[in-house]
Amino acid sequence: MELLAALVIGLLLGVGTYLLMERNMIRIVLGTMLINYATNFMLLTSGRLKTGRAPFLGGSEVQVAAEGSGGIIVDGISYVDPVPQALILTSIVIGLATTAFAFVLSYRTVQECDTDDLLLLRGVEHE
Question: Model pTM?
Answer without folding.
Answer: 0.74
